[in-house]
Amino acid sequence: MINVQEIRSESNKFKNALLGFQHLLTMYSGDVIVPLLIGTALHFSATDMTYLISTDIFMCGIATLLQLKRTPLTGIALPVVLGCAVQYIAPLKAIGSQFGIGAMYGSVIGAGIFIFLIAGWFARLRKFFPPVVTGSLITVIGFSLIPVAVQDIGGGDPTAASFGNGTHLLIGLVTLLIIILLNAFAKGFFKAISVLIGMLAGTAIAGAMGLVSLSAIGEASWFRLPIPFYFGAPHFEWSSIVTVSLVALTTMVESTGVFFALGDIVERKISSDDLKRGYRAEGLAAILGGIFNTFPYSTFSENVGVVQISGIKSRKPIYYSAFFLLLLGLLPKVAALVLIMPNYVLGGAMVAMFGLVGVQGIRVLQKVDFEDNDNLLIVAVSVGLGLGITFYPQILNSLPDSIKIILDNGVVITSLSAVILNVLFNFRKPAPQQ
Length: 434
What we know:
This protein has 434 residues and is mostly helical. The protein has helices at 4-41, 46-68, 89-99, 101-123, 131-153, 166-185, 188-192, 194-208, 215-219, 238-265, 272-291, 302-310, 316-330, 332-339, 343-365, 373-391, 401-407, 410-426; strands spanning 82-83, 298-299.
């Protein structure tokens, strides 16, 4: 006799797995770029680079699980995926070149401990993040990523002679068009996985035109197990730890915006206790990253768009995504399958998703009283400064490196501006009469 309930259960598992794979594809290239750039700058061998990338992917899965599962100390329990933030690339490259790989990983562990210890204090700043601040922050997080998506559509490297190639642009735009059409005409599950279908279709089109290389698959090994201190014992150099800890503060600010954005999407009020657990999970993930010779991990804002566009607010797909990350980290040859997806295909999909993150910020701003001109000014100045620094970070070149590390980030500038202006204009106002 056919068990209908079992069939439905298996169908739901398959759907959640596909949704999880969609999340994986969204974050994959953004995370892999970190070990690629740092490993190349520090002249890692091909063998070491393979280890670095595969272990980094594995640790993304561990870090995601730490954030998904609520424990007495850690885990915000929102549908989030964690990866290594690009803010860490420049300081880690500099530390590795000047003080050695041991100091680089010592600074990662030190920063992780720092995040874990200040999590409770940082979470108490919750009152400084009303909708006028979080809305501005989320808006800039989304819209500041749009140039990255457009750059990917062009081929990824603006200095390359092939950048902006007509074929690449066409495939990237077709990928975006497929996602739009599926959202306009598809229903239910096919609409939920529109991003996945668009990326797979775009890759298939590029493959049919002979634009997809399979060499990465042939060169990768079948199995590799992560090993603690693979590149040697950590060295704790104080200035390196301070530098990476300062960068960690910027990622905590960005994570705060992501937490509030997801809280708004899943209709859950984010408390100070939630924030504390979320920060601690990122701190613990960074400590483990240093132990296994990878990197610090933080919440990826890219995946907020996937939650929004799919309409699936459950954590179940993210558990599958974490499992896939663990599996890909252990099986480099399988992981290399994801690397064959061209940048311009990813870029086409990212335009929609990053734009949705920005629009989510605008939705949060709808809760703000814009009859009050002070709130208009807070948003106008904060979003303007944030996007301005995002597009022209070189304006800060005359500042000392220690300050530039903190301010060379549009999200941080937006956060600082919005918090300070909100305190200036709104904290001195009398509370509204009940």
